[in-house]
């Protein structure tokens, strides 16, 4: 998996310490209701297309860029599905990272699905009833994209009530 230059620069100073990084994950549908997946080179597993925004880049811009870079598909972002902090990961080289993912529902508007960089072994459209093995988080994100629910996020526990705060 390609490591963005700005993260390489941070790693040169921070070593393998835990970095808290933004991520974008895209649930991309075509006009036939199929979902776009890539088979990742780093794990060999099928996954939703994802990436890291560049400094100053808006999440939707990063999503459109990553979809094109990885799959050759042109897409537009339709809405935010969820905001989710993942568990920390340790990469084979010893680097530690934790991602806060902004998950976006996207619609393909052009291009041909293909392996378009070195991050994928394969890229394909899948009918929802013919999905390859996916983890529960990816499946949940696809299910969320099929509904019109509000944006999902992990709720925070309610703070203690301030006795001096007037309650209507």
UniProtKB/TrEMBL annotation:
Q: Which PROSITE patterns match?
A: NUDIX (PS51462), NUDIX_BOX (PS00893)
Q: Return the protein name.
A: NUDIX domain-containing protein
Instruction: Supply the source organism for this entry.
Output: Actinacidiphila acididurans
Q: Does the keyword Hydrolase apply?
A: yes
Domain Nudix hydrolase, by residue range, is 19-150
The record's listing under Pfam families reads:
NUDIX
Member of which family?
A: Belongs to the Nudix hydrolase family.
Q: Which domain of life is it from?
A: Bacteria
């Amino acid at each position: 998996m390609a490591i963005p230059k700005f993260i390489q620069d941070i790693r040169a100073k921070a070593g393998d310490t835990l970095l808290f990084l933004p991520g974008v994950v895209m649930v991309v549908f075509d006009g036939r209701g199929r979902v776009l997946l890539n088979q990742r080179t780093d794990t060999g597993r099928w996954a939703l297309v994802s990436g890291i925004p560049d400094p100053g880049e808006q999440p939707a811009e990063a999503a459109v860029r990553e979809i094109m870079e990885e799959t050759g598909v042109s897409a537009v972002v339709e809405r935010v599905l969820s905001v989710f902090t993942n568990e920390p990961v340790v990469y084979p080289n010893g680097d530690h990272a934790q991602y806060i993912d902004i998950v976006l529902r996207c619609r393909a508007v052009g291009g041909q699905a293909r392996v378009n960089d070195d991050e994928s072994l394969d890229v394909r459209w899948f009918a929802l009833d013919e999905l390859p093995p996916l983890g529960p988080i990816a499946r949940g994100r696809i299910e969320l994209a099929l509904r019109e629910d509000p944006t999902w996020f992990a709720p925070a526990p309610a703070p203690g009530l301030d006795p001096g705060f007037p309650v209507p």
